[in-house]
Amino acid sequence: PQNTPEWLEKKQSKIGASEIAAVVKSFVPFDELVKILGEKTAHSFMDEPLFITGYSIYHKVARGYSIPPLDDELSLYGHAMEKYFDWLMQDNETFEFVGSEDFIERPDISPYVVCSPDGYAYSKKEIVDVNGRPIQGNELVWEKKTVSLFKSKKEEMNLRGLPWQYIFQNQYQMMCCDMLGGIISSLVLVHDTPFIRGRLTSLCEVGDFAKIKDMFQPKIDHYVYARLEPIQEVIRLALHNFEEAIKTDTPPEINLTV
Q1: Strands laid side by side in the 139-147 sheet
Q2: ∠54-37-140 over CA atoms, to 5°?
Q3: Are 6 and 242 in contact (CB under 8 A)?
Q4: pTM beyond 0.85
Q5: In this structure, what DSSP letter does residue 128 have?
Q6: 72 exposure class (CB count in 10 Å sphere: 0-12, 13-18, 19+)
Q7: Is residue 124 within 8 Å of residue 96, measured between CB atoms?
């Protein structure tokens, strides 16, 4: 189960879904990214700032380096709002959402592949993804995101869609869970301040979700994605190169732009 000592120990020596974008940036040469993803997508992805580097992940796995956690304020808020997601999605017309504490290992893909999905969504009717691609079956892996208003505006999420790092994360989860589709639910607060986040965290802790909806009306958008083979190909290449780097004790160069 997630959030247990055993889970933390396993997580320390593996690559989680939130880390895969950084591994791709550090372990796939740019010319390979361009060849597989196309020049525009490769440049857009490489220009995105990440919270962690592939260099740090390499040393986490190879040397036991401890990656600094998120600030307590953001971490507590993010975990608390996951409960709000579950409550709010109870009567969704299109999907049945189910939260999860699963921890999945896929040594058949790579000895380092693991993920901790937030949950799963079961479609009640035929669906297509954000690009109009039909998704076979009705089961999707679910990722919940609490996104700051500043980050949403800075990255123009309403116009450009989600950051590539979120898409890479969800595609990695699909690979891990052996699913053909995924859904990312993005929550943005209109009044995003430390005080408001603290109030929301407290209300989640006591289960007063209706008050959250009435008082703050957080905006939630759902982004559905079919399996994107070019991105999954890049992920597999990154994992292969990461394995070779571990075997040969060759850390990547530090990339200060990520």
Answers
A1: 95-99, 119-123, 139-147, 181-188, 219-226
A2: 80
A3: no
A4: yes
A5: B
A6: exposed
A7: yes
Q: In the 8-state DSSP scheme, what is residue 189?
A: -
Residues 108 and 103: their CA atoms lie apart, in Å, by: 15
135 burial (CB, 10 Å; 0-12 / 13-18 / 19+) is: buried
In SS3 terms, 80-120 reads as HHHHHHHHHHHHCCCEEEEECCCCEECCCCCCCEEECCCEE
Instruction: State pLDDT tens for residues 32-78.
Output: 999 999 999 999 999 998 888 999 999 999 998 887 766 666 778 88
Phi first, then psi, for residue 122 (nearest 5°) are -115, 115
Let me know if 74 is exposed, middle or buried by CB neighbors in 10 A (0-12, 13-18, 19+): middle
Could you tell me the two tokens for 96?
């049945």
Please state, in angstroms and rounded to a whole number, the distance separating the CA atoms of residues 127 and 138: 8
In angstroms, the CA 21 to CA 164 distance is 8
